[in-house]
Every structure is written in structure tokens, then in C-alpha cells.
Design a protein that fits this description.
Blueprint: E1 2-5, E2 9-12, H1 18-33, H2 37-54, E3 56-57, E4 68-70, H3 77-83
């Protein structure tokens, strides 16, 4: 799965890593639901850090279609709330 982190580039994520990302996504959603800015910030950074850790960075000149687009690390709680779908940021 190709994932774009806005403002950073694309990474390829193995299907085996989706479950752990979904868990972090759920924690992020919970922070958004409670409107807890501090927890939101921690959970957003945890999700993005995990994507960077498990993902294989694609070359900067690669233009693969992204299956997921994640917000940048400095996104506001409102910006991320608008990006959430029925299954959060990460489907599955």
C-alpha cells in the first residue's frame, strides 16, 4: 500500500503492518472525539512515526498513486477531523 504523508512524500507499507497502524489510528480517533488537543498531538505523531518506521520511502521523483493520504505532523485537530472517513485515516 502506498501512503503519502502530506508535505513529506510517499512510503510503501506492507499489509502485515496495517493492523498496528489501525490500532494507532483508533487511538487518534478517540483523542479527536474527546477534543483532547494534547493527546491528539501525541497520537498523531505516534501514527506518523510508525508509518515512517515500517514504511519503505519511495524516491522523491516517484509519482505512484497514493492509496492513503495522511495529514502532516503539524495538522490541527480540525484538519484531521475533516480527513477522517468512516474507517478513520487507515481503513481496515
Amino acid at each position: 500500500m502506498i501512503v503519502r504523508i502530506m508535505g513529506e512524500g510517499q512510503v510503501e507499507i506492507a499489509e502485515a503492518d496495517i493492523d498496528v497502524l489501525n490500532e494507532l489510528d483508533g487511538e487518534l480517533e478517540a483523542a479527536i472525539e474527546t477534543d483532547d488537543e494534547d493527546v491528539f498531538r501525541v497520537k498523531l505523531h505516534a501514527l506518523l512515526d510508525k508509518v515512517r518506521q515500517v514504511g519503505k520511502a519511495l524516491p522523491a521523483d516517484s509519482l505512484e498513486p497514493s492509496e492513503l493520504i495522511l495529514p502532516p505532523a503539524d495538522a490541527s485537530i480540525e484538519e484531521v477531523r475533516e480527513m477522517l472517513g468512516d474507517t478513520g485515516l487507515i481503513p481496515g
